Amino acid sequence: MSSLGAPELAVEDFLALAAHHGCGAVELRCGDDQPVTVALGAGERSALRAQLADRDLDLLALASYVRVCEPGGEVADRLLRHIELAHDLGAHGLRVFPGGADQPVAEADARAVEHLAGAAPAARAAGVRLLLETHDSHPRGADVARVVRAAADAGAGDDVGVVWDLLHPWRHGENVATTVTELGPWLDYVQIKDATGPATAPVPALTGSGDLPLATMADALEAMGYAGWVSLEWERAWHPQVPPLDQALAATVRWWADR
Fold first, then answer.
1. Residues with Cβ < 8 Å from 234, sequence gap 6 or more?
2. Angle at 31 between CA 120 and CA 102, to 5 degrees
């Protein structure tokens, strides 16, 4: 479960909500305007890691807003700082975005490969996997797989994986079977969500009540033998009119049990 769904909650209250609903792991947003940031001191990092342990919650990913297709040397520096924080908090992975929507595809790919392969040794040493999400300029499984495959060939190996945000490949017209085939070798975890409205402006919907082919997606994951995490990303931070995370999580649990 992602903290994106409860922007009004302090971290400790979000963790309490996750534990109450029986979640085993969480994604924590990390940014300059968030409670979790690379500016946290050593004591704050230790305290947050202890809070996770006290709630018996794994930190599935530190959900950063680093965009690896962007130009500039600061991307590499930001990656290293976020890897260090992810390590200190005990995170399994560091989520990164592609970005680069206004760039030629070849240039965006090349920058992403350079940044991911360059940061892979530090991630490996920290025990943190770099996770590129289906988003931005690379919304489809084929887009992300192209980058991750090239990064692996450039020396990143298995230190770079993929977060499958269910919404974006679907709304860009990629067949579910194609997405699964493309992402399969690198799929780390899945962000589940539902939505209604036009593909150009989808609005979050309680899981199972929207337009996404969730049953087809679940069947495809089962067919590939997927045994990883499924994490609710409820985008209430961007859509404050939708129900609170507590309701969204309860709906997701019901849908998952009944699917």
1. 1, 2, 4, 5, 193, 204, 242, 245, 248, 249
2. 70
User: Does residue 156 sit in helix, strand or coil?
Assistant: helix
Cα distance between residue 55 and residue 142, in whole Å? 37
* Closest residue by Cα to residue 164 from 147, 128, 139, 195: 139
| pLDDT per position as a tens digit, 174-200 | 999 999 999 999 999 999 999 999 989
Alpha-helical segments (H) within 6-62: 11-20, 42-54
pLDDT digits (tens, 9 = 90+) for 56-87: 999 999 999 999 999 988 999 999 999 999 99
What's this model's pTM, rounded to 2 decimal places?
A: 0.97
Question: Would strands 58-67 and 93-97 be described as parallel, antiparallel, or unpaired?
Answer: parallel
The SS3 assignment for 47 reads helix
Cα 211 to the center of its chain, rounded Å? 21
Rounded CA-CA distance 17/235 in Å is: 16
Give phi and psi for 141, each to the nearest 5: -60, -40
